[in-house]
Amino acid sequence: MSEKKIIKTPLSDETMRGLRAGEMVYISGTVYTARDAAHKRLVEMIEKGEPMPFDFAGQVVYYAGPCPNKPGFVIGSVGPTTSGRMDAYTPALIDRGLKAMIGKGLRDETVIKGIVDKGGVYFAAIGGAAALMSQCVKEVEIIAFEDLGTEAIRKLTVEELPVVVAIDSLGNNVYQHN
Amino acid sequence: MREISFDQIREAISQMCIEANCLISEDIRCALKKAEQAEENPLGREVLGTLLANAVVAEEKMIPICQDTGMTVVFMEIGQEVHVTGGSIAEAVNAGVAKGYEEGYLRKSVVADPIRRENTKNNTPAVIHYNIVPGDKLSITVSPKGFGSENMSALKMLKPSQGLEGMKKFIVDTVIAGGPNPCPPIIVGVGVGGTMEKAAVMAKQSLLRPIGEKNTDPFWGSIEDDLLAEINKLNIGPAGFGGKTTAMAVHITPYATHIAGLPVAVNIGCHVTRHVHRDL
Lengths: 178, 280
What we know:
The complex is a heterodimer. In chain A, strands 2-3-4-5-7 form a 5-stranded mixed β-barrel. Chain A is globular, with a radius of gyration of 15 Å. Chain A contains 5 helices and 7 strands, in the order βαβαβαβαβαββ. Chain A has a single domain, classed as fumarase. The two termini of chain A are 24 Å apart. By secondary structure, chain A is an alpha/beta fold. Chain B has 2 domains: 100 residues, no CATH class; 128 residues, no CATH class. Chain B is 39% helix and 25% strand. Chain B is built from 8 helices and 10 strands. Chain B has a 4-stranded mixed sheet with strand order 4-2-5-10. In chain B, helix 1 packs across helix 4 and helix 2 packs antiparallel against helix 3. The radius of gyration of chain B is 19 Å and the shape is globular. The two termini of chain B are 14 Å apart.
């Protein structure tokens, strides 16, 4: 393997446009977890004209709901969930400035178009490698929707979280290899 | 009559929930290792290596292999000479699930109502399948099922005229439709025949069979082999990044059916497809 490519958040437009589908990169910095229930609430807040719990510019949303942490652990196991379930909500978030997402699996045409139009990126983390990924998380803070338990929005400080560029800003797609 | 207490069942279930979620089963570990050696796509090989490394970390720290610690599916084979004391079997199972998910720091992923969706906060209720069998043992299988793969499962009532080819096509089409979503390399559990619900339960039970154990009926064993070969030509690969390791096994369970029907259920299991078995 060649040398590790580490990218730091917040991600600049230049960084995102430089990524190519199929390459493995390691994310260091801040990522925000949000999955089904949190997406539903975010979109309801957008419809009501309410402010978002964090500014999306340059930030990365990670589709994940962690396990509870054991004593002495920063976080429980935390791997990606299937992204397709967020497709119904993602365009509204992209309109509000979100450009980078981490999940696993296929996205629909509207989301792919949004990524291409805005010069964003969709990363795939390895589904099921959740114990390993929990070791990359150095700090955790719940910043919104605490009542949702595992589905709350958590601000994670990560070091070298391994992901694969799944859809790049040109619309290249790692899942279209056949 | 042999007596088994509520507490014995609760404790067993509790421990089995933790064990199933934190320790990868040996058949799957072997299959992943074998696949890692055989896989030709470098990215696919890297994924398989990562999954093996993940299993080591999970075991060392006794933390879940995957954050989706599933909805808890429990198969209870109850010997007809067994008498359960101190409470109902279902309550003992659910008390065990609640205890295991709390004490094992497992994720609580169950909502009380499918539309109103409020989390029950202790991962109950479990889905429990009962079977009455001869003998004086209580045989328990705990299989926490993640929904990345559960959501990619399907059931279809085929016409008898569609036959073997129709069945195979439906199975392969279900795997294609799932693509990268169910966390390949997958295990494909199939139930064929019976009625609608019988096919679905058999598909789930097929996931419990250890990898490497073929259907004992050579007719079905060879269909399993053919389907595995066909699925591994789809180039979905580990994590869906391409490669020849899309499935680790295809397990089919057939059953008698009606003259008018050919039910086929396909239950997809992810690469950690968890199952722990214990006899009380």
